[in-house]
Write a structure and sequence with these properties.
alpha+beta; globular; single chain; 120 residues; five-stranded mixed β-sheet; Beta Polymerase, domain 2
Length: 120
């Protein structure tokens, strides 16, 4: 979780909010903590927000603090749904990985949750 907080701090400097997804969201829902034993956490942001801020700028901001950003999974730009970035954050002398995935709509999940609640 410290790596996610560190990444969030740097992204907010660029006005790029992050959303908890996958294992982080599930763990938070279950016990207010990440799923133990997972080697990588996953967060998301809207690709358009990151496109406006610039992937290269995020890379420079992270590098200035001793972190790294692997943008090899995002060659077509952050507005493509296949874009995946991996932040390598230096936390207490070791590297922690956080995957950043791009989303273009968030309302689909809300509709699915509403449908599940309707059937309860």
């Amino acid at each position: 979780m410290r790596a996610v907080k560190e990444l969030k701090k740097h992204c907010l400097l660029m006005d790029v909010p992050l959303v908890l997804v996958r294992d982080i969201l599930l763990g938070w829902r279950r016990s207010c903590f990440a799923v133990p034993g997972k080697p990588i956490a996953t967060v998301a942001t809207f690709g358009a927000w990151l496109a406006d801020a610039g992937v290269s700028r995020l890379k420079k901001v992270l590098q200035a603090s001793g972190h790294k950003l692997d943008d090899g999974g995002c060659l077509d730009g952050p507005t493509m749904p296949s874009c995946r970035l991996t932040a390598r954050l230096r936390i207490d002398g070791s590297w922690a990985l956080v995957e950043i995935v791009m989303i273009d709509v968030i309302f689909q999940a809300v509709v699915q949750i509403a449908a599940c609640v309707h059937w309860l």
